[in-house]
Amino acid sequence: MSQDKNGNKRSDGNEPHQYQAGSTTSREQDQWKERPPYRIHDKADFDAKWKGKCHCGAVQYELSRERPLASKYCHCTTCQRMHGAPFQWAAIFHKTDINFTNGHHDLGWYDPTSKSTTHHLPCKVQCAYCRTPIMDEGRNMILLFPTLIEGINTPEGRKAFEVQSHMFYQQRVVDVKDGKPKFKGLADESARVDEETGEVIPGSEPKEEDK
Ligand SMILES: [Zn+2]
Ligand SMILES: [Zn+2]
């Protein structure tokens, strides 16, 4: 990257496609490595309840929380496209609930709003090698994808990560008649959708003070 006389950054074709340079640099754009969720925890004070990894195994993590703060299916078109799946399954955790045990320097980012691949929040986080989606990193929380977690297909795993609701249900490509609450937009912050008719339930919009 070089700068022209007006101070504008100009590509000289030499900059990396994504910032994932090794662990020894202290550039401003690498400061994320020192902060949660990427800060490495001391083994002694991290009680791992679950382990997860990407498809190739380069990225591995542990979770210290038995159950996510919330678990949801998101049917929005961005999730459909970015996951190559009919909907996204997201489990919400604090940034301090995760400890990357391998490959946290081998991550790639993408912000679907700005279509940028530098690390800024919120963004989507992938394994830079096999491209498995790892999580969505928000400003305060992370949304993990439970299918990466070892034991998610056991009765205990399914129970711990069971969803409470569906979001953006009107953008769905499949009907999921599981009896869980369905929301037009964000869960608990938008009108409810009737799972039988697919229509918004009149008067179900939350009141301002409930939001
Ligand atoms: Zn991988
Ligand atoms: Zn979504």
UniProtKB/TrEMBL annotation:
Pfam families in UniProt: GFA (PF04828)
Keywords, alphabetical: Lyase, Metal-binding, Zinc
Residue ranges, compositional bias (Basic and acidic residues): 1-15, 185-195
Domain of life the protein comes from: Eukaryota
Residue ranges occupied by any CENP-V/GFA domain in the UniProt entry: 50-162
Renumbered residue ranges of the record's region Disordered: 1-35, 185-211
InterPro entries, alphabetized: CENP-V/GFA, Mss4-like_sf
One Gene Ontology molecular-function label: carbon-sulfur lyase activity
UniProt keyword Protein transport, yes or no: no
PANTHER family cross-referenced by the UniProt entry: CENP-V_GFA DOMAIN-CONTAINING PROTEIN-RELATED, GFA DOMAIN-CONTAINING PROTEIN
The family this protein is said to belong to: Belongs to the Gfa family.
UniProt name for this protein: Mss4-like protein
UniProt organism field: Parachaetomium inaequale
